[in-house]
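Risk mitigation, structural track. In case the binding assays with iron/sulfur cluster fail to produce interpretable data, a predicted complex structure has been prepared as a fallback.
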Amino acid sequence: MDFRETGYGLIRAYIEKRATKDASNRAAHHRTAHHRTARPSAAHPSEARPSAAPPNPHPNPYPLRTLFWECTLQCNQYCRHCGSNASSATSKDIPGADFIAVLDLLKRRLEARGWPLPFLAITGGEPLVRKDLSEVMHVAFRELGYTWGMTSNGVALSPGTAARLAQAGMSTVSVSLDGYGATHDTQRNAPGSYETTMANLINMTKNRVFKRIQVTTVVNPHNMDELETLHAVLLPLGLTSWRLASTDPIGRADESLMLTGAQHRELFEFIVSHSDERLPIIYACPSHLGEYEQRVRDHPFHCSAGQETMSILHNGDVAACPNIPAHDDTIQGNIYDQDINLDILEVWDTRYHFHRNRDIMFSEFCDACDVWDACRGGSRHSFDFEARTQRKCIKKMLDFERERGR
Ligand code: SF4
Ligand code: SF4
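Fallback model:
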């Protein structure tokens, strides 16, 4: 599909206007500097190749690997565990053209430096509530060359929508499934959603619509007993992986959804005993996992927020990882701030002090911890920025539960 056929004139016009401005800036530069430099333009993908010149060395040691876009805070479900507190209320989301402008500038700056483009991870709310999503991402992929994927509750991922997103270059999807049948519907306050999500999932896996198709389950005491049943349902689908996470104390998740140390152990034993090449099962990124480190995921604990991961929130705020509740220490600016003016690489180069100071999360909570060097205070998203202490540590829960059992 040619982008021009979509009729999404706003973004097209923006990029062309920007390209014209670039061209006149270049001409002015030539007039004053008396030399020629080829500069790729996002409006012309054929030109948008890394320059043959050697990459500029740059002192920033933190590679930008993943850029999240929380494209909306609106959602068509109301999950009990939602870390973003998303709801059906309309959120003030940045226009797609402004997101494209950020990507356009980022691409040109990265290419000048010889750095690859980050992977775009689209999240929400429910991303598919945004009616312009596939058009915006079509530009990001076809015109600017970004690869991208999305997390979704799957309800709106009908065969037609999935095909349109694949056309727009979407290569990965992670679909939420938080229990079997009514358990899923209750957790998400969305009657009938299990059946719709499963039907959409079956279509996507059967027709291999995306390169990687993952299911994510947020585990709580109410769906723990259904993991065997879910495993039996998911096994024949040929998923890339099944990602399990336990509920964290963020957003509107309350105590009744948190697993105990013993339940975490049960969850990890489930992963160890059921994961195989037919359906790889992995635990999500949060927390040091003590004796289960690298047994239930293939890499040691590392909170990549602000070190490899950046995000643009629905209102244009620039943050580290979208799972971290907004706080002065975590919001690094806004794409519309005059000193940023859409240049998020400048933000990446010069800010994120909290995320890059390896000792800043030390508190009494971590005192005398035998894995401090490997963990450094745990996940940023479960850190209490007011009390300056960690709120959840699975390693500690497992240790406590083992001690108590002796
Ligand atoms: S803040 Fe949490 S979700 Fe984000 S990268 Fe760190 S551990 Fe993962
Ligand atoms: S006590 Fe602190 S350093 Fe130790 S595993 Fe938990 S969060 Fe990490």
